Amino acid sequence: MNRKVVLFYPPYDGPPLGAPACLLSLAAPLLQSGFEVSIIDASIEPNWLAAVLREVRDALCLGISVLTGPMIRGAVRMAKAIKKDAPHVPVIFGGWHPTLLPGQTLQEGFVDAIVRGQGELTLLEIAEKLAGGQSIHGTHGVSSKQFGLPQHAPERRVALLDDLPMPAFEKADFDAYERVSGQRKLAYATSVGCPYACNYCTDMVFYKRRFNALEAGRVVKEVTELVAKYRIEEVAMLDSNLPVDWRRARDIAKGFLDSKIKFRWTFQASTDFLCRMSDDDVRLLGESGVTHMGFGTESTSSSVLKLMNKRHQRVDEMYETARKAAIGGIHVTYNLIFGYPGETEADRAETLQTMSDIARQFWNVSFSPNIFTPYPGIPIWGQLREMGVREPQSLNEWAELPLGRNTLPWLQGAALERLQRMLEFFLLNNQLRKATKDHPRLRTVFRRALGAPLRWRLRTNRYSFPWELWIGRKVVKIATRRSLVTGQPLGTQGADAC
Fold first, then answer.
1. Which DSSP helix (H) or strand (E) runs through 370?
2. CATH of the domain at 430
3. pLDDT in tens, 349-365
4. What is the extent of the structural domain holding 280?
5. Is residue 233 a contact partner of residue 279, using CB atoms and an 8 Å limit?
6. Going by DSSP bridges, is the β-strand pair 142-146/113-115 parallel, antiparallel, or unpaired?
7. pTM
8. What is the phi-psi region of residue 477: left when phi exceeds 0, alpha when psi lies from -120 to 50, beta otherwise?
9. CB 106 within 8 A of CB 76
């Protein structure tokens, strides 16, 4: 009897953090139940189309995990190829994008079904039904087509992460990922979900504000064993907000430290939860191997934070987070969002001035400024439509969503050019300080030549005749966007840093 399931992770921009944790998590219950699982990750398989077509010929189904944006292109191409070469194989989409837009995604002729939300137990039930020759219609957590019409079964009850098996890391080829990225990395999630309801965030729609976390002891045991077994150098925690339970975060760090197994680890958080940890707690994070933390600070304008429904975010805690991280020897990245509906230029100037002051005081702070991107399912789509934003109407249109670039009707022409100039001066000011940190002679020269003019521009919000940019681009590499998980640059401009 056929008991094979194929899982596919489409290509995406940037180096991989490691094997896709989502597919490894899906594979674990299937393997426990006696199914054969084949995983193809396009980031390490250059001939992914042929590889998947070869694997699916004797498979029960193909599962494709999909994120909003360019990743959709590979998913669509793969699904269409399956329908042409192996039409008997059901194509099942899952992940963030199909969950947020199941009706629209199911309209595509090459999509047979969608796994909504947490997928481990849902996909297992689908595989069991297909192996037994049964229909998958009505399976909780599944959207499917019956007689050509969409059918959305009831939601599946969310399982506690501690009740699910460890992801099938034995299916990951760590050597292949090292060849691609240059490091032996592990992507691991100690929790999912965040209790906050920020209006721009898909996490609160996907996880419905539920924080679902592994027990600290299990995290320590699994991670340290994986690091030792696979010679892992760095663990990227994929949690939306790891220290929601800050005592648990402290216990994880202490467990890593007590294990005597050395590795680096990184994670995302919110400043309010980090600030609930004592200075000694944060020192413990650093001693345990934490090298970077990413924070969604977004803005320092109280009016913009209110529009974002981000009332938990306080400016004093941004300073305090930088201070605490610095004493732990930990780098931090502050994400910034510009162009949010209702934001004024005064709000932008306030944010850049405050963040420049934080960077001046603390050596460990970097920034990742972004123009607001409307993702599917976020709560403010009604307002966005009224303001002239057109919502994509198909997978192909969502695939062309220009992540990190601007499509906002209210931020065009001179207003957009001025914002871009503001951000260039802001990033140059911060990067110049870092580039000359270990070069006293250069630091003196460039502080005199560029430092004071840059600070004056940011303080007075004047950006005409940008001679400092022309010089600065020859001196430093300006990182325009950074990963909140690792802090690594996602885009640069200019010459090599000193």
1. strand 365-371
2. 3.80.30.20
3. 999 999 999 998 999 99
4. 183-372+408-494
5. no
6. antiparallel
7. 0.88
8. beta
9. no
